[in-house]
Amino acid sequence: MNEVLDKKIIGIDLGGTSAKFAILNQQGKIQEKWSIKTDTSNDGQLIVHDIIESIKQQLELSELSTEDFIGIGMGSPGTVNQANGTVTGAYNLNWKNPQPIRQQIELAFGLPFFIDNDANLAALGEQWLGAGNNEPDVVFVTLGTGVGGGLVSDKNVLRGAMDAAGEIGHLTIEINGYTCTCGKKGCLEQYTSATGIERMARDMADAFKNDSSLLKKKIENGKTIDTKMIFDLAKENDKLANKVVDRAAVYLGIALGNVANLLNPSTIVLGGGVSKAGQFLAEKVNKEMQHFLFPTIREYTKVRIAELGNDAGVIGAASLVLNELLKK
Amino acid sequence: MNEVLDKKIIGIDLGGTSAKFAILNQQGKIQEKWSIKTDTSNDGQLIVHDIIESIKQQLELSELSTEDFIGIGMGSPGTVNQANGTVTGAYNLNWKNPQPIRQQIELAFGLPFFIDNDANLAALGEQWLGAGNNEPDVVFVTLGTGVGGGLVSDKNVLRGAMDAAGEIGHLTIEINGYTCTCGKKGCLEQYTSATGIERMARDMADAFKNDSSLLKKKIENGKTIDTKMIFDLAKENDKLANKVVDRAAVYLGIALGNVANLLNPSTIVLGGGVSKAGQFLAEKVNKEMQHFLFPTIREYTKVRIAELGNDAGVIGAASLVLNELLKK
Asked: Dihedral (C-alpha) B255, B257, B258, B260: value to the nearest 10 degrees?
């Protein structure tokens, strides 16, 4: 049990509503998982304390000690300073000042601790054991309330000069398009996030002249619409719903085509709520993207739907630990 | 002289017309440089032989032996397989089959040999000792007959799954724009390479209604125009020339803004013939790019003109040697 290769990893995926935990082996297989609520009261000052206590409890329950582990990995919202192991700007956790997370957790367990942005770890997870099939060059795109991303190049997460790399949602794809929450115009997020797709549907319904569309009727009757409904109707050949989905696919095609021209990933993985549309979405985006790919990579670049769901973060955290320990 | 830190590096920058050589110290300072013509006859089979002989001669002349060096770095056109040290598809060298360059050069000198794509090495050179000021995250863009690029992230060159990363010239910036030599529509190269800028000038002259433009007169009188002339006239406030330059700057602003949103470099370096327009160009591109940058990075991302000229390749080759030896 104390052989190095048999030792385990603790993965943590911290979010605004819950923190997910897993104990994984070095092949990334989850052996135990659990979660706790994130307590954002008192400026979120109990969050790291609660994480430490929860891990201690679980180790006791599982009859494990810190000697059974090679390290702890964690994904966090906000801007993560990898070198210092601190987090700033995690507004959904109510953290107002930089948090010395590594220091707290290393003091508690005496194990090597590595932390990264949650989107980067989801990307690492999908790259390793999800739709990325452990290919070294994989881009991960979350299509949720917003659009975010993580870039894995030669098995490394790209972070950039200010830890701000991977803002796929804010690629400009329409010079004079919708104004984004970021203040800029024509961001991908405005057309391909859940909210963006719903907004496009409402705007396109006005100009749509075919009365046979159920989606148009729902919108005109003031019914609530959501992305799932739009995709379901598109699958049933609703004309307006199809127009909306096709437009989102064209914008994704332009943006992901440019991402591929720049980074040459083998696979682009789509995750987040919108990606639940599955193969129907992946096929449309793959088809549109072809028009925007440099010929050398055209046959080679694939769009795939994410496979790990909510486990991507903790699996990515384990991958981070392994990658960083390997560098030392 | 035999202290490891005093040892030197040989840098080679192989091109279709000449091969440039330099002997550099480990700070990247060029101590000697020379060049030979590239002999592309006989399917280019004498090229590597000539390179080896030229280095041998120079070592004799300089009274140096292989023991005075830590390694040899080389930039080559074509697709470079880093792992194998081979080159394919270097059409301007007449190489029809993969060339085992590392093997040949290591056999001749018994020194560690590293090879990369020429654009990647120019990027590394500018990142290290040129306009990149040794910042870890720098993007290099050549605006020449075509538009190419090299991406340096955390001091590493990004290569991608097929060694095809960095195709900045083929980012789509106009969905239904000019058809590119690559077959795709609206590539950046069609608007911001030397040939692209000249073509825009001719196309825009037709629609331009102001007769005071000297550029318009030259075009209408069938005179040869070139990019230098267009920039010179723009600096003198020629109205059409300014419109052409501004349009190129907007397209560069969109493309480089998206590159920055994705990779978050601190500096984007413009090289190649078009970049000789200097600060006049850099200021316009910087200004346009602001509109397309995610707010977090807006104040932070700078466009600068390349500083190393023809030495970028051999300096980048030295940087490659140092980086790769450090990894071992």
From this structure: 120
Q: Do residues A248 and B169 touch, judged by C-beta distance below 8 A?
A: no
Tell me whether residue A42 is exposed, middle or buried, using C-beta atoms within 10 angstroms of its C-beta: 0 to 12, 13 to 18, 19 or more: exposed
Domain shared by B299 and B316, yes or no = no
The ipTM estimated for the assembled molecules is: 0.92
Contacts of the segment A63-68: beta carbons below 8 A, 24+ positions apart: A64/A8, A64/A23, A66/A109, A66/A110, A66/A111, A67/A2, A68/A1, A68/A2, A68/A7, A68/A8
pLDDT in tens, A24-53: 999 999 999 999 999 999 999 999 999 999
Angle CA B44–B47–B51, to nearest 5: 175
- Inter-residue contact B316 to B125 (CB < 8 Å): yes
Closest of A309, A230, A244 to residue A271, by C-alpha: A309
For an interface test with B, which of A264, A302, A328 has the most B Cβ atoms less than 10 Å from its Cβ?
A264
* A300 shares a domain with A176: yes
Contact between A282 and A269 under an 8 Å Cβ cutoff? The reply is no
Q: How many structural domains comprise chain A? A: 2
CATH classification of the domain holding A76: 3.30.420.40
Residues A115, B120: Cα–Cα separation, whole Å: 30
Confidence (pTM): 0.93
Q: Which helix (H) or strand (E) holds B242?
A: helix B239-263
DSSP, residue by residue, A84-149: TTEEE--GGGT--S-B-HHHHHHHHH-S-EEEEEHHHHHHHHHHHHSTTTT-S-EEEEEESSSEEE
CA A18 and chain centroid, separation: 16
- Residues of B engaging A, defined by a Cβ cutoff of 8 Å: 135-137, 151, 153-154, 156, 158-168, 170-172, 175, 182-185, 254, 257-259, 261-266, 291-297, 300
Residue A161: strand, helix, or coil: coil
A169 Cβ contact partners less than 8 Å away, ≥ 6 residues apart: A146, A147, A148, A149, A187, A188, A189, A193
User: Does residue B102 sit in the same domain as residue B150?
Assistant: no
One domain for residues A32 and A166: no
* Cβ atoms of A46 and A11 closer than 8 Å: no
Domain match, A84 and A154 both: no
* Nearest CA among A6, A24, A84 for reference residue A320: A24
Q: Do B161 and A185 touch (CB under 8 A)?
A: no
| One domain, residues A198 and A291 | yes
Q: Which of B192, B183, B184 is nearest to B148 (CA)?
A: B192
In terms of C-beta density within 10 A (0-12 exposed, 13-18 middle, 19 or more buried), how is residue A155 classed? middle
Domain check: are A150 and A291 in the same one? yes
> Does residue A316 share a domain with residue A266?
no
State which residues form the domain around B220.
133-306
pLDDT digits (tens, 9 = 90+) for B3-51: 888 999 999 999 989 999 999 999 999 999 999 999 999 999 999 999 9
